[in-house]
Each structure stands twice: as C-alpha cells, then as structure tokens.
Amino acid sequence: MPRATFLGHACVALAHEHHRLIVDPFLSGNPVAAAQPAEIDVQYILVSHGHGDHIGDAIAIALRTGATIIASFELATLCAGEGAKTHPMHVGGAHEFDFGRVKLTIAHHGGGHGENASRYTGPPVGFLVTLGGKTLYHSGDTGLFYDMKLIGEMNDIELAFLPIGDNFTMGINDAVKAVEFLHPRRVVPMHYDTFPIVSADPMVFARQVKGAEVVVLKPGASVEF
Ligand code: NI
Ligand code: MN
What we know:
Layout: E1 3-8, E2 11-16, E3 19-23, E4 44-46, H1 52-55, H2 58-65, E5 68-72, H3 73-81, E6 85-89, E7 94-96, E8 100-106, E9 112-113, E10 119-120, E11 125-131, E12 134-138, H4 148-154, E13 157-163, H5 172-182, E14 186-190, H6 202-208, E15 213-214, E16 222-224
Parallel strand pairs: 3-4, 4-5, 5-6, 12-13, 13-14, 14-15
Antiparallel strand pairs: 1-2, 1-16, 2-3, 7-8, 8-11, 9-10, 11-12
Helix pairs in contact: 4-5, 5-6
The structure holds nickel (II) ion and manganese (II) ion (MN).
C-alpha cells in the first residue's frame, strides 16, 4: 500500500514499493518540520509553486540525490537553471511516470521566488498523484474553487491534503466545503500552525467535515492509502 508521511506545513513524503517522492519539501527554516533535508532520499520532488514555504529545500535535495523536480514549466525552468533535473508540466496535463501518474490541477494563489518573491514562477498548481492504483490530491496553496467539484467527479480520491490555516489559503469553513466538492475518502488538514499567522484548530475542521474521514497527522506521522 502507498504511504503518505506528513512532514509539517505542506510537505508530504510518499512511498510505494521502491518509489520515493516528496511534495513541497520546506524543511530548513520550518519550525514544525519532522525531518532534516539531509535525511530525504527520493527519486521525485513535486513543487506546487515558488513560494519559499513550498519550494523550500527542493533544489538542494535534487542536486544531492539526483531526484527529478516535477513542477510547472516556469518553476521547472528556474530549478533547471540551478542545475536540477526537471520534468516540466502544466495545469490540466498528466504524465505517466515509473511510479504512477501525476496530473496538475489549478490552484488560486500566487507564484514567485527569491527576494520579495520578485521572480515569477508561473501559476501555482495542485497535484493528483496516482500510486499503486490509489489517487492522492494535494491542493497546494489555494483558495476554495468550484472546479474542485469537477476534480471530485472525475477522480476517485482516496486521500486529500487540504490547507486550513486561512490568511494565505482556505480557512476551515472553505476547506469543509472543499471536502464536500472533492468527496475524498479521507482528508488530512495541512498548512496550519506552522507560524502564528496560520493558526487553526484541526479538531474544529474535523467536527465540521461531513462524508469523509478526517485524519489529523502530527508532523512525522504517516497514513497508508
Ligand atoms: Ni504560497
Ligand atoms: Mn504556503
């Protein structure tokens, strides 16, 4: 069975058979990170957008391990410029990799990197990742959008990672509505309590969600799917 390990903030490590992936590896400077960048050994790194709390240590890990960075064309180009191996994709596009399938979804947010996020890194994305026949949805940073209903209709989502921290992304009420649209079997809240500005109580989220099991993972905890 594929396994997802929450490493804090929006970082999720995925493992299935000999395949190892990580999404949004913000570990250095992340006060809730459950791993150090040097401990990460993966073949693929998925990066949702260029903000520092998502691209994080992606380039350093890619250079050390030889992992391929999967990201939007603009963000992949930035990473390739730093010497990383990349697989550029874009919104609506899917690709079959050796580990399974990745499809990029829309996300309503920004995309910039470097000083004052001044370098445009393309639109932010979310990911549908199919591993061992099971589909995981990691929304990236986003506000609620009605097309989540379409994503839910067209995909049998086993596990969804959704932000609940408000301010920069959906807050609890909107994330509850997102679960209604996506109807995953299980949902894991993310992007909260990393910094005071994104404080949220995952138990409030858990109490409001209907039709899906809420799995609150502490950084470092795993779930099979
Ligand atoms: Ni962001
Ligand atoms: Mn973020």
